[in-house]
From TrEMBL, chains A, B:
Entry protein name: Orotidine 5'-phosphate decarboxylase
Catalytic activity, as annotated: orotidine 5'-phosphate + H(+) = UMP + CO2
Domain Orotidine 5'-phosphate decarboxylase, first and last residues per copy: 34-284
Pathway as given in its UniProt record: Pyrimidine metabolism; UMP biosynthesis via de novo pathway; UMP from orotate: step 2/2
Organism this protein belongs to: Tremella mesenterica
């Protein structure tokens, strides 16, 4: 059992150095929700309608601001207001994937000014550590958080094996101030418990979920692994398994939270595509994911 | 010597099935320019000023529309008008990196409507082939082209080795209608000539530039490799070697075009940061890259 998965969200909130991670964990505990809704719709009205319907059920609203045809900073302000009123965090799923100089501008500038309203965003580790340096120069002073994409949910993606291992290492090398976790399908951060002997040797060899195999002694990460606390947010979730025609693959809340030890399920079409019943369906997801978490704590 | 690198751009233009690739190769020949300028500036006025200064020297203008604070579709229209008047193609360096369903919307919708004005865009192969299916469903009917990022220029990036090999395979599996080439540092598409014996066996083992090792017989690609023609566009170019503080690394035009056999150099800060002398400096880059190409043809 991964040490992080047997702690309550409340316990984890108390110890986290990043304000956004702390707030997310507090909200999860307070609302008994480890459900994020992904609002992949293309107008301000649709986004706000869905958020108003399901905002009380979720810990996090995930946006794609660049698909919204009438996006304005006033809309962003309204979303921030709702996030305070309905108690959720805003996660712009930008998947930054460029060199440091460019992502710095993409995060802070342009029509969207993502850093001015999104509590959390994410980036691919692909361009190397410069992407984290660039984004943190903008986001860390604002108390924002960053997730690295260590795995993806889509068919035949390349974020596997050594790639995933390097994503985790890059997060560790960056420290805990800005990189607060991963987008992943599994508990990619040291899946095995740290034995005393391993600790003395400074070596941790991950196993159990197939992907992570981490040398805890490497390159700037030499710390106390019990202090580590990465949030794992997992996309590709529906109440029944399946996929779409463009390679998306779905798992259930129980698989994600109980079997794989992840922290938050991200549900998109499973909620927003069920027109008129969004709140009802969101409650089903919230309940399923929360029960899986409670069951995990009892193990 | 890679077979593509000993053909003229004019010869290659005649045979290419994709209209954007064909137009780019024709422009390169007509203007004697294998120089793309990257306009990484944050206002419409700055972008247009740079384009008006250097537009006649370049075959391609590379944009980051999401860093422009006053972007409008009218600006995009003006850019398209200039691209016709000054004879260059527009390449939006979006680095799509999401699942098929999402990139379809990011490419066609939102405030930027990239597919409506950008001749060329690019994507990371990381999410798997669904990203190509999604983008091509929008772009191919419009005659647009897509580059896959097979390598990156930034320090300690993860687009190396097997990742690069899989990027090239993914392009081959997608066919030649929409994926027209790569962002790469090297000639990643089969660096070695295809011998008759290899052709009989259906096997091509790449070597020479360290990254590509491609099984030409695999999964949907069984064709005549002499017909293959991928454009390789290469970022991270300055007249002198060096880097920035966020991990960018620079090579010279000669290294990129002559030594590595790439097709187009992409120059950003090397041109637009030399205020007031953009046209003069662009001409230096154009000349250096074109001479490297002519020298390559004589080998």
């Amino acid at each position: 059992m991964h040490p992080t998965t047997i702690k309550t969200y409340a316990e984890r909130a108390k110890l986290h150095p990043n304000p956004t991670a702390r707030r997310l964990l507090e909200i999860m505990e307070r609302k008994k929700s480890n459900l994020a809704v992904s609002v992949d719709v293309t107008t301000v009205k649709e986004v706000l309608d869905i958020v108003r319907s399901v905002g009380t059920k979720v810990c996090c609203v995930k946006t794609h601001c660049d698909i919204i045809q009438d996006f304005t900073l006033d809309f962003a302000k309204e979303l921030v207001r709702l996030s305070q009123q309905m108690d959720f965090i805003i996660f712009e799923d930008r998947k930054f994937a460029d060199i440091g100089n460019t992502v710095t501008l993409q995060y802070s500038a342009g029509l969207h000014r993502i850093s001015s309203w999104a509590d959390l965003t994410n980036a691919h580790p692909l361009p190397g550590p410069g992407i984290i340096s660039g984004l943190s120069s903008v986001g860390q002073p604002l108390g924002r958080g960053l997730l690295l994409l260590a795995e993806m949910s889509s068919k035949d993606n390349l974020a596997t094996g050594q790639y995933t291992t390097e994503a985790v290492q890059m997060a560790r090398q960056a420290g805990r101030g800005f990189v607060v976790g991963f987008i992943a399908m599994n508990r990619v951060d040291i899946p095995s418990p740290v034995s005393k002997i391993q600790k003395v040797n400074g070596m941790v060899n991950g196993h159990g979920h197939g992907n992570a195999s981490v040398n805890g002694n490497g390159n700037g990460y030499g710390g106390d692994k019990e202090m580590e606390d990465y949030l794992i947010l997992t996309p590709g979730v529906q109440l029944s398994k399946g996929g779409d025609t463009l390679g998306q693959q779905y798992r259930t809340p129980h698989q994600v939270i109980f079997d794989s030890g992840c922290d938050v399920i991200i549900v998109g079409r499973g909620i927003y595509a069920v027109k008129g019943k969004e709140a009802e369906v969101a409650e089903e997801y919230r309940k399923a994911a929360w029960e899986a978490y409670e069951r995990r704590l009892r193990c």
